[in-house]
Amino acid sequence: MEELEKKNISSTSMKEEEEEEEIDNSFVPVYHSFSSQNYHSHVASGVDYLSILASKHGDFLLSSAGDQVKVSELEGKVVGLYFSANWYSPCTKFTNLLVNVYQQLKECSNVNLGFEIVFVSSDEDLNAFNAYRSSMPWLAIPFSDLETRRALTQKFDVEGIPCLVILQPNDNKLDSAVIKDGVELVYRYGVQAFPFTRERLEELREKEKEKHDSQTLSSLLTHEARDFLLGHPSSKQASVPVASLKGKTVGLYFSAQWCIPAKKFTPRLVSVYEKIKQQLEGKEEEDFEIVFVSSDHNQVEFATYFETMPWLAIPFDDPTIKALAKYFDIRGIPSLVVLGPDGKTVTKQGRSLVNLYKENAYPFTKTRVGILEKQMDEIAKGLPKTETHSGHRHELTLVPEGHGGGAFICCDCDEQGYGWAYQCLECGYEVHPKCVKPVCRGPDN
Prior knowledge:
Glutaredoxin, alpha+beta, 14 helices, single chain, 20 strands, five-stranded mixed beta sheet, 445 residues, 17% strand
């Protein structure tokens, strides 16, 4: 690679992507970034487009038709610098979404003249660049202008792709800024994010917060034409009123029969579900339930898959399914969102908590997780600081949560987890402490 080397894609990062299947619905493509950015926008001062987009090779960009467009024509516009490449599937997935958003904005007469996107390629050669650019209706830095592409990558500290950097016109206003989390904003808000000003984003976040603060099971799981869920095929109840779940801890399980990681996780979740139900027997004041939110391709797949589950389900192809996936920002499956007895969101990390703590994770609250983490910390105190694992050639070091970026996929058992792990500091290989298979060394080693 040239300006964005493939070394940014660590073996662990790629494994994480493999262990979470994309939802096969156009409303929520999968996004995977390698840079560890917070959700809040990173702000810098306004910029002058000519100074960063023009070079000794010329002061023009390429249109989608291949014509030259003067950089000066961008003055006064909101500009998105789109760092991407055709060799990485999350880029192509996001490009499809971005094209849709771009075209919608261009159809608005009051936006058309005030917004543009510039493609900054990380493709491997000119043919790949041309093929990828043919799917984009916006401008591009010429592939031959490697100097500018490298300079932009360095200037905006681009550590992973896809990356969309939003530039506000250099008008010296208070909200003039550089916003580096454009991908996150487009996924979360779509066309509503425009014009990407500080004021607009705060307005959207406030509306989002109000919506989440007022959510109830009824508002999430019902609509005018349906106020029930499907009972399990083996049960006597064909349908169960959503109202009957009030006061229960509820897990929303986003999954599909075609999802490879779910083939391992669903049986594990069934076991955990049954054990939690056993623990709660005789406790009238609390209960636990799971609702299957399907991304299956057809009714037959849905029905076949649902038969393997002992819980409830939203009917196949119900509009609530897409609404929930967007509302909870579900970008890959399997995923488990846990709601508390009051209908509010407890955690969106249910899958990781089940993998890590099994039935002990219930009721998935911060208080409960905090207790479990302290227990794990105590156990970690007695573990060796380094280990030599039979499944890896390098020495592994015991590291706490956050050292390797938080969640990880164990390279031995393929289970997702948080917390302590044995990690190779040379290549990013990680395993759960329980999965380490120490190599027995002789006295001469």
